[in-house]
Amino acid sequence: MRVVEFLCVATILIAFVGVVLKRNLLMKILCLDVMTTGVVSLFVVLSRRFGERVPIVSEGVESYAHPVPQAAIVTAIVIGFATLSLSVTVTMILVQRLQTVDTVEIEKKARG
């Protein structure tokens, strides 16, 4: 279990380094998406409880897993996808207008 937690944290950190170091705007967005995936994966790994069943009423089961964290994770996934879609759309418009995906050049063109 600790190996999976380590891999999730490593994914988050590597993606963060990508966000900081990459100059390509699309790569930054991709790294942000990978970082979000790492965070969601870490939450799923940390919320797993052994011996509990899914919240479906059946005889003989006394301990149910709480459905609220599961709903929160699904909501985070949907919001992450919507944010990613909007970011890619805005980037496409920006690239059509400025003809570049390099963040340094975008900042230069925005300033003057």
Description:
The protein has about 110 residues and is mainly α. The chain has one domain: Helix Hairpins (Orthogonal Bundle), CATH 1.10.287.3510. α1 runs antiparallel to α2 and α2 packs antiparallel against α3. The protein is elongated and about 70 Å long. The termini are far apart.
Helical stretch tally:
4
Based on secondary structure, the structural category is: mainly alpha
Radius of gyration: 20 Å
Per CATH, the architecture is: Orthogonal Bundle
Order of helices and strands: HHHH
**Tally of extended strands?**
0
**CATH first level:** Mainly Alpha
The residue ranges in which pLDDT falls below 50 over 5 or more consecutive positions are: none
Largest sheet at a glance? none
| CATH fold description | Helix Hairpins
Overall mean pLDDT: 88
Q: How would the blueprint of this fold be written?
A:
Layout: H1 2-21, H2 25-47, H3 67-98, H4 103-111
What can be said about this structure in brief?
The chain is an all-alpha fold. It is 75% helix and 0% strand. It has four helices and no strands.
Descriptive terms for the model:
single chain; 112 residues; mainly alpha; Helix Hairpins; 4 helices; elongated
